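Duplicate of #3305? Posting structure anyway:
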C-alpha cells in the first residue's frame, strides 16, 4: 500500500525537507492490534485516509511555490510569480477595508422644547433673570441691565502675618486705606512694638461700605492676639474715629512637671508620658553631659522633668524651655540639674555647673599626621610636627574644643590664617591654615562654637586643619589631654539658686494640665444678661 521514500541519514525525513508522514503511517499500521472492534477499526481507517489526503495536498501545494522569497532571484519568472501573489493578496485586503468615513457611535439626542428649556436653565449666565419656562433661567430681552452692581455693605476677612512681612504691608494688602492704615499702626504700636508681633498671627478685619465708587473701604473693626496674655481690638466709634481697646488675658505660669519610669527606652517613655519632643531633646542633652545614658540610667529609675508652661483663661496653652532635669533611684534623687543664669546653663543641686569631659574634635575628619618628628612635605627636611593634621574639605567649619578666649586671630607666617585660644589651666590651642576666620581677638567662645573654616593658607599642600596645643607655652600632644569644664556657684547666687530649686520641686506632677478655673469677673461675663438688668442699666444712663 505504501512505498518507501528517501530519508536522511538521521531517519527524521527525506532529504528535500518534506515531512516523513509515510514512515509514521506505516509504523502506526504495524502496531495496530487485530483484536480491536470493527467500528473502531473503520473509524481509525477513515482517519488514516483523511490524513493521507491532507498530507498529499500539502505536498502538491508545497510544489506550487506560490509565495517565494522576493529577495531572491529578482527578475526571474519565480520572482514575478511571487510578486503577483503579493499584489493579489494586497488587493484582496484593500477590497474588504471598512473605509475612512467617520463612524457614528450613537444616534444624536432628540432635543424637544422641554429639553431645550432645561438646557437653558443650566447655562453659565445669571440664573435669576427671566422665567419664560417656569425655571430659573438666563436673562431675556425684557431684562434691563443695571448701571452698577450693588456692593456688599461690609466685608469680613482674616489676614495672616507671614514671616519676613511687616504689619503695615499686610494690612495694606487686606484693603485698608492709607489714613486708616497709619492710624491703626499708631494705635497698635502704643500697646506692643510692631516688630514683636509673631509671624502666623491672624488678624480679623471688618471693612465697611465705600463712601464713593473707587474709594477704599473704611476700616470698621480689627482684632487680633498681640501676645499670649494680650488681645487688641480697634473699632470705629460713633464720631467716626478709630479707638484701641486692650483686652488682657489672664495667664497662669505654673510649670509643667512630668514624671514616670525610664523603662527600656527613656525617650519613648517620656514621649508616652506626654512630654513635648523639643523638651525631651533638651532633657537628654543636659542629662547626657552628666551621666552615661546607656549605663547611668536603669529601667527602674524615675525621670523627672519640669518645663515652663503657660495656661490662658481662653484655653490656649504654651510650653516653654526645660527648667529641671532629674533622675530618681529608689525614691531618692540621683541626678538634679536646674537651668540658671543668663546663659541658660544647667547646674547641679550642689551648685556645680554642667560637666563636660573630654575634648571636642575641632573638625570632622580623620587624623592624617600625628604629633612628633616627620619629613615636612614642602620644606623637604625632617623636623618636629608640633600638632595634629585633620583631613577636611575646603570650607568645612572648625569649632573650639572647649570654652576659652581668643588670644589672636590673623596671619601667622607658615601657619596661614590662624586662631589661638586660651583655656583654663594654662592651656592654649591654635587652629591653622584657615580659609576664613569667624572670631576676633578678645572674644569669648564656648565649646563647639565655630571659630573659622578649613582652608590651605600658609605652608600647606592642600585643604586641611593643623591643630596645636600648648601647656605653659610648651607644645604638647593634643591627643594626650582631656578637659573637664565646671562652673561653680557661690555666695548669694548659690543661696538664691537653692531656694528656686526647692520651690520648683514643690510643683505637683501634671498640675498644670488642669483647666484654668474662671475668675469671678470671667464667670459673670459668661452668664447671659437678664432683661431686667438691661432695663436697669438703661435707666441708670438716663
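Output from current build:
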Amino acid at each position: 500500500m505504501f512505498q518507501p521514500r528517501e530519508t536522511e541519514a538521521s531517519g527524521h525525513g527525506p532529504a528535500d525537507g518534506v515531512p516523513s508522514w509515510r514512515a509514521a503511517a506505516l509504523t502506526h499500521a504495524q502496531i495496530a492490534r487485530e483484536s480491536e472492534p470493527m467500528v473502531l477499526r473503520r473509524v481509525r481507517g477513515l482517519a488514516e485516509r483523511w490524513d493521507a489526503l491532507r498530507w498529499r495536498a500539502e505536498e502538491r501545494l508545497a510544489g506550487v511555490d506560490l509565495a517565494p522569497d522576493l529577495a531572491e532571484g529578482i527578475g526571474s519568472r519565480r520572482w514575478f510569480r511571487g510578486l503577483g501573489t503579493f499584489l493579489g493578496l494586497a488587493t484582496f485586503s484593500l477590497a474588504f477595508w471598512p473605509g475612512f468615513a467617520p463612524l457614528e457611535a450613537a444616534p444624536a439626542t432628540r432635543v424637544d422644547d422641554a429639553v431645550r428649556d432645561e438646557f437653558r436653565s443650566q447655562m453659565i449666565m445669571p440664573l435669576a433673570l427671566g422665567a419664560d419656562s417656569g425655571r430659573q433661567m438666563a436673562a431675556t430681552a425684557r431684562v434691563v441691565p443695571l448701571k452698577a452692581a450693588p456692593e456688599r455693605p461690609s466685608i469680613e476677612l482674616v489676614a495672616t502675618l507671614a514671616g519676613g512681612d511687616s504689619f503695615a504691608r499686610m494690612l495694606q494688602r487686606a484693603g485698608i486705606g492709607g489714613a486708616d492704615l497709619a492710624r491703626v499702626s499708631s494705635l497698635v504700636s502704643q500697646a506692643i512694638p510692631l516688630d514683636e508681633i509673631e509671624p502666623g498671627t491672624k488678624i480679623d478685619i471688618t471693612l465697611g461700605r465705600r463712601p464713593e465708587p473707587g474709594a477704599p473701604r473704611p476700616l470698621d473693626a480689627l482684632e487680633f492676639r498681640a501676645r499670649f496674655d494680650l488681645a487688641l481690638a480697634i473699632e470705629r466709634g460713633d464720631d467716626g474715629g478709630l479707638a484701641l481697646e486692650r483686652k488682657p488675658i489672664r495667664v497662669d505660669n505654673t510649670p509643667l512637671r512630668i514624671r514616670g519610669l525610664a523603662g527600656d527606652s527613656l525617650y519613648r517613655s517620656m514621649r508616652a508620658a506626654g512630654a513635648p519632643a523639643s523638651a525631651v531633646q533638651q532633657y537628654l542633652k543636659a542629662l547626657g553631659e552628666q551621666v552615661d545614658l546607656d549605663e547611668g540610667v536603669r529601667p527602674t529609675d524615675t525621670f523627672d522633668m519640669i518645663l515652663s508652661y503657660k495656661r490662658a483663661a481662653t484655653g490656649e496653652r504654651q510650653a516653654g524651655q526645660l527648667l529641671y532635669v532629674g533622675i530618681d533611684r529608689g525614691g531618692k534623687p540621683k541626678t538634679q540639674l536646674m537651668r540658671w543664669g543668663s546663659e541658660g546653663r544647667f547646674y547641679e543641686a550642689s551648685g556645680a555647673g554642667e560637666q563636660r569631659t573630654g575634648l571636642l574634635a575641632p573638625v570632622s575628619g580623620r587624623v592624617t599626621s600625628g604629633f612628633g618628628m616627620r619629613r615636612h612635605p614642602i620644606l623637604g627636611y625632617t623636623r618636629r610636627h608640633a600638632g595634629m593634621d585633620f583631613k577636611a574639605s575646603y570650607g568645612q567649619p572648625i569649632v573650639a574644643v572647649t570654652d576659652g578666649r581668643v588670644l589672636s586671630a590673623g596671619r601667622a607666617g607658615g601657619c596661614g590664617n590662624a586662631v589661638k585660644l586660651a583655656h583654663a589651666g594654662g592651656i592654649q590651642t591654635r587652629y591653622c591654615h584657615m580659609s576664613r576666620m569667624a572670631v576676633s581677638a578678645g572674644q569669648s567662645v564656648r565649646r563647639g562654637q565655630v571659630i573659622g573654616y578649613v582652608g590651605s593658607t600658609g605652608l600647606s599642600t592642600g585643604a586641611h586643619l593643623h591643630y596645636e596645643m600648648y601647656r605653659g607655652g610648651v607644645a604638647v600632644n593634643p591627643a594626650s589631654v582631656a578637659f573637664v569644664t565646671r562652673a561653680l556657684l557661690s555666695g548669694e547666687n548659690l543661696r538664691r539658686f537653692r531656694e528656686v530649686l526647692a520651690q520648683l520641686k514643690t510643683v505637683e506632677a501634671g498640675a498644670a494640665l488642669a483647666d484654668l478655673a474662671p475668675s469671678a469677673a470671667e464667670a459673670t461675663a459668661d452668664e447671659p444678661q437678664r432683661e431686667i438688668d438691661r432695663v436697669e442699666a438703661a435707666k441708670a444712663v438716663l
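Confirmed duplicate; merging threads. The radius of gyration is 48 Å. DSSP finds eleven helices and 25 strands in the chain.
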